[in-house]
Request: fold
Amino acid sequence: MVWALLAAMCATAMAQQEEGTLSWQPKVGMNLSNLSDADKPIVDLSFGIETEFMCTDNFSLAAGIIVSNQGAKYDGQQSVYSDYTVDLDYVNIPIMANLYVLPGLAVKAGVQPAFRTKAKVKDDSGTIDMDKFYAQYGSVVGQEYEVKKFDLAIPVGISYEYKNIVLDARYNFGLLKIMDAGDAFYNRVFQLTLGYKFCVDL
Reply:
């Protein structure tokens, strides 16, 4: 009953993009992710929730918590390892500014701190912790690797809303190397999500 009432309020408020509207949006989608030095991207899932506040009729601020599975595929390097996949899980906290250029159509940009919750490497022999994998690899090539637990990205994108359903596409440019090694290892993630807005007027 409560959800139905909030959905009805949202349908009216968001059609007008009224100032003072607060919404929250559960969302789920997919990532096409890569690392800047990797050979192939991977496809995986993302899900979470975002809250948006309409500062004016066509400008809003939003923040969220998005669980994001990322990574990349590597071909065997220097005959040390066979092909392997880096599997990373992050809790992303996107903080976005949204400009509605047409009713329901928004362009967006912001900043996104992220905290790594998992880092694994998978190959034909199984799965190993990423820190251990790169410690072993580093000992072979004579270089030390430290996998970082914090990342920072610039997300930019576009979204379209129709009857409370929101299709959101954004690209996350990683600004920090995920490990101290060379000039590579930056996260690159295209994220496509589908959400539903529940809103109230303040």
